[in-house]
Design a protein that fits this description.
Protein name: Putative membrane protein
Order of helices and strands: HHHHH
GO biological process, one term: respiratory electron transport chain
Largest sheet: none
Pfam families: DUF420 (PF04238)
Shape: globular
InterPro entries: Cyt_c_oxidase_su3_a-hlx, DUF420
Keywords: Membrane, Transmembrane, Transmembrane helix
Distance between the termini: 56 Å
Structural class: mainly alpha
């Protein structure tokens, strides 16, 4: 496929990438304002935190697979990581629409560390959306050189978001009701 064909293929996805990159964070924020009078069990946060942990593991395995030039395995693992991230988001939204937020009860340095991790996790979880989508599109349109370049940014961002999601859960878990 020529660069012109790659560019044309990429462009047909650009509008969708922009829409999803805006709609997902806005929808999450809006849904936080909606409370449904159904209390989901407190075991849901460990499940979605485990989903984040599994996402991090799958991302590392995908990285190893591509380092070993196992492209098919890499592709499958990235698709699994995307599905896990979507499942996490669905469970996270469902829990927060039905349950009150749990405040962090720690003090001192732990409190500052928690809020640093939480804030960077939230901000980067928004920022990583277009990176994941663009990286994926570059791969499916066979624009491998651009895919490799953006993946060098996407991978550490996505891994950081997945790992810090688990750290946030571990730090807040003693304060669940």
């Amino acid at each position: 496929m020529s660069n012109t064909e790659n560019t044309l293929d990429d462009k047909k996805y650009n509008k969708l990438i922009v829409i999803l990159s805006v709609v997902i964070p806005v929808a999450v924020a809006a849904l936080f304002g909606i409370k449904i009078d159904v209390e989901l069990p407190v075991f849901l946060p460990p499940i979605y935190a485990s989903t984040n942990a599994l996402t991090a593991l799958v991302l590392v395995l995908a990285f190893i697979a591509i380092q070993k030039k196992n492209i098919k395995l890499h592709e499958r693992l990235i698709k699994v990581a995307i599905v896990l991230s979507v499942l996490f988001l669905i469970m996270y939204i469902a829990y927060h629409m039905t349950s009150n937020s749990t405040p962090f009860g720690g003090e001192g340095g732990a409190k500052y560390f928690y809020y640093f991790i939480l804030i960077t996790h939230i901000l980067l979880s928004i920022i990583v959306i277009p990176f994941v989508l663009i990286t994926y599109v570059k791969a499916i349109t066979n624009n491998i050189e651009k895919h490799k370049r953006i993946a060098k940014i996407t991978f550490p961002l996505w891994l950081y978001v997945a790992i810090t999601g688990v750290v946030v859960f571990i730090m807040i878990s003693p304060y669940y009701a």
